[in-house]
């Protein structure tokens, strides 16, 4: 698991701890501890479980979300809920005389927390829509986070094959597929190291993303090979698009970390258009062959 | 001292292989301690390069890396890094070889550094070269990983040495894998799966493909350096046994034990350690030869039987069925080999 977001939440974590602590203090200071025999352990397990799970949710929230408005709302809502749950739990251990106002304190935060969380979830929905927009050209209509490539954060070959099969099954009128391969990538890797190689892959994938349309999808196929899916695109249009990508990569001056010198790259590319009753594997095979042939000639 | 290493012998100078894999996995976010768990390898030893490693240690390391690294490309990334790696005498030897044929010959001397798990044997027939690959140690579950790394290293190294792509054809015994894209990217498009023989083949003319950095003097210099290192180990235990069996067909277990200067019981135990029995190995060696004669040379049953010193055809057919699971005629029908139109 990755805990890198935790340090950013120090204030929120403090808030959660303070809430929990104040619940405990409030309960102990206004009552006396029950005798061992009268404690109902079934209730302790049930109510304790709720309090504990709330803490687990808060933990996942902290490790998975960066700070921000939606995060604040979720933390606040869950904290209120946890406050009530904890007081409820302490009731099993502590007997209270001045029942009335304490029961008010116990029951009011929970519904407030629920309302806050509901509002937060709506905000989260809005946020997700924004993120989906940001992810366009990286993602088609389905999300499979385990298929995302580690280096470039583009989707990998499995996802691409699924999307390609989907397009072909739907019988979309004109689908073009573009395969791009960096020339002399091995040489670059040997000269500047693999870390720089990975960085180059990331930057080039950004560059490719910038050059394609909102409806297109870019994936990392394998190694230094990318594939761009161009739905509803006739061949001439795809050729123009490919030319634009090649052109922009040719002008892209990658600065190496050590000396900051500019290194230029070229791409080899292959382009096929789907024909009726085409299969994904057959289409990819044609692409590979075309790329290899182009390489041999060049 | 013998010239081979058993699975558990800490004799292999393959630090560079281990170091590459460790670096690679760590760069992909794998925790180093988890990666080395159960391998008995200490990171300090890898860095100092003093202690030699055993094949089983390296295999365990590969298994860990395969499980912990995200993605399916670990073996391929490793393969791309293997050569030249650090500029050792071994790397220099290959770097300054004369041509591809020379490189394949010299590889026998230095393979313990780059990829000790697989050995190749060159057969030439009808203007084509067949580099038949085999398991040198008993890699079991890691064999495909090792093979992927080996083939990638070969393809990447040949691009470096000859400054062009040698059109290798790869025949793999296993079915087409899901991560086929890595094969296409690293090995090219001349790939076939579910093949009877594991081999890399190419036209014979490429054997004379000159190396761009050929230098007789530097090559000799590297050879001298290698000799000074006095590392006699140049093959795995299974490789040593299989080479013996190839030379002396129908050798008995006791005779083989005599060659290795150990008792038959010890030999049996050693083989078991490597996950095979004596008769299995014998069958494997025979199987490879029979399939080569049948599929590559296209001989008929009489000719194969004669070549393999069988007295009569029915006997040969029975044996063939035992080795391969099908009769010679079924095998001919099953694989319409070897057409390289694809």
UniProtKB/TrEMBL annotation, chain A:
Residue ranges occupied by any GGDEF domain in the UniProt entry: 173-298
Catalytic activity field: 2 GTP = 3',3'-c-di-GMP + 2 diphosphate
Name of the protein this chain belongs to: diguanylate cyclase
Matching SMART domains: GGDEF (SM00267)
Alphabetized CDD domains for the sequence: GGDEF
Enzyme Commission number(s) from the entry: 2.7.7.65
Enzyme class at the top of the EC tree: transferase
Lineage of the organism: Bacteria, Pseudomonadati, Pseudomonadota, Gammaproteobacteria, Alteromonadales
Organism of provenance: Bowmanella denitrificans
Keyword Transmembrane helix among UniProt keywords: yes
Protein origin, superkingdom: Bacteria
A Pfam family annotated for this UniProt entry: GGDEF
InterPro entries xref list: Diguanylate_Cyclase (IPR050469), GGDEF_dom (IPR000160), Nucleotide_cyclase (IPR029787), Rev_trsase/Diguanyl_cyclase (IPR043128)
TM annotation in the entry: 41-63, 70-87, 99-122
Keyword presence, Chaperone: no
Keywords on record: Membrane, Transmembrane, Transmembrane helix
């Amino acid at each position: 698991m990755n805990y890198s977001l935790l340090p950013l939440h120090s204030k929120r974590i403090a808030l959660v701890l303070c809430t929990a602590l104040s619940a405990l203090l409030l309960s102990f200071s206004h009552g006396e501890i029950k005798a061992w025999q009268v404690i109902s352990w079934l209730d302790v397990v049930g109510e304790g479980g709720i309090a504990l799970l709330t803490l687990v949710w808060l933990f996942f929230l902290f490790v998975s979300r960066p700070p921000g408005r939606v995060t604040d709302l979720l933390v606040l809502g869950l904290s209120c809920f946890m406050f009530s749950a904890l007081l409820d739990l302490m009731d099993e251990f502590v007997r209270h005389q001045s029942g009335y106002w304490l029961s008010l304190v116990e029951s009011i935060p929970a519904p407030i927390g629920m309302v806050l969380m509901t509002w937060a979830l709506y905000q989260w929905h809005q946020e997700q829509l924004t993120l989906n927009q940001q992810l366009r050209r990286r993602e088609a209509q389905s999300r499979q986070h385990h298929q995302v490539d580690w280096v470039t954060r583009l989707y990998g070959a499995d996802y691409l094959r699924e999307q390609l099969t989907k397009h072909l099954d739907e019988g979309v009128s004109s689908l073009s597929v573009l395969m791009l391969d960096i020339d002399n990538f091995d040489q670059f890797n040997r000269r500047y190291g693999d870390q720089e190689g990975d960085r180059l892959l990331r930057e080039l994938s950004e560059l490719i993303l910038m050059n394609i349309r909102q409806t297109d999808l870019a994936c990392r196929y394998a190694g230094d090979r990318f594939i761009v899916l161009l739905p509803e695109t006739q061949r001439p249009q795809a050729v123009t698009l490919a030319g634009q990508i090649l052109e922009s990569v040719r002008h892209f001056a990658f600065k190496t970390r050590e000396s900051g010198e500019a290194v230029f790259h070229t791409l080899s590319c292959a382009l096929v258009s789907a024909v009726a009753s085409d299969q994904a594997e057959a289409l990819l095979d044609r692409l590979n062959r075309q790329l290899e042939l182009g390489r041999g000639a060049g | 001292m013998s010239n081979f290493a058993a699975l558990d012998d800490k004799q292999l100078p393959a630090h560079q292989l281990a170091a590459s894999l460790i670096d690679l996995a760590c760069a992909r976010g794998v925790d180093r301690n988890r990666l080395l768990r159960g391998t008995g390898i200490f990171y300090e030893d890898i860095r100092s390069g003093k202690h030699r490693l055993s094949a089983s240690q390296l295999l365990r390391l590969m298994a860990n890396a395969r499980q912990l690294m995200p993605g399916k490309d670990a073996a391929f990334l490793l393969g791309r890094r293997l050569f030249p790696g650090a500029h050792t005498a071994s790397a220099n030897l290959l770097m300054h070889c004369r041509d591809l044929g020379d490189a394949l010959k010299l590889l026998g001397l230095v393979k313990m550094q780059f990829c000790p798990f697989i050995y190749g044997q060159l057969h030439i027939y009808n203007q084509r070269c067949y580099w038949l690959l085999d398991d040198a140690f008993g890699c079991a579950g890691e064999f495909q990983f090792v093979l992927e790394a080996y083939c990638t290293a070969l393809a990447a190294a040949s691009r470096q040495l000859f400054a062009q792509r040698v059109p290798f054809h790869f025949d793999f015994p296993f079915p087409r894998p899901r991560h086929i894209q890595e094969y296409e990217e690293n090995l090219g498009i001349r790939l076939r799966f579910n093949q009877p023989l594991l081999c890399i083949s190419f036209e014979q003319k490429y054997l004379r493909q000159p190396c761009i950095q050929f230098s007789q003097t530097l090559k000799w210099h590297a050879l001298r350096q290698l000799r000074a290192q006095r590392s006699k180990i140049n093959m795995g235990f299974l490789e040593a046994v299989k080479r013996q069996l190839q030379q002396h067909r129908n050798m008995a277990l006791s005779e083989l034990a005599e060659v290795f200067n150990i008792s038959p019981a010890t030999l049996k135990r050693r083989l078991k350690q490597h996950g095979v029995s004596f008769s299995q190995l014998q069958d494997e060696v025979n199987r490879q030869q029979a399939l080569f004669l049948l599929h590559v040379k296209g001989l008929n049953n009489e000719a194969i039987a004669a070549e393999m010193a069988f007295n009569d055809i029915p006997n040969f057919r029975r044996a063939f069925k035992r080795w391969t699971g099908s009769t010679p005629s079924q095998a001919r029908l099953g694989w319409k080999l070897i057409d390289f139109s694809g």
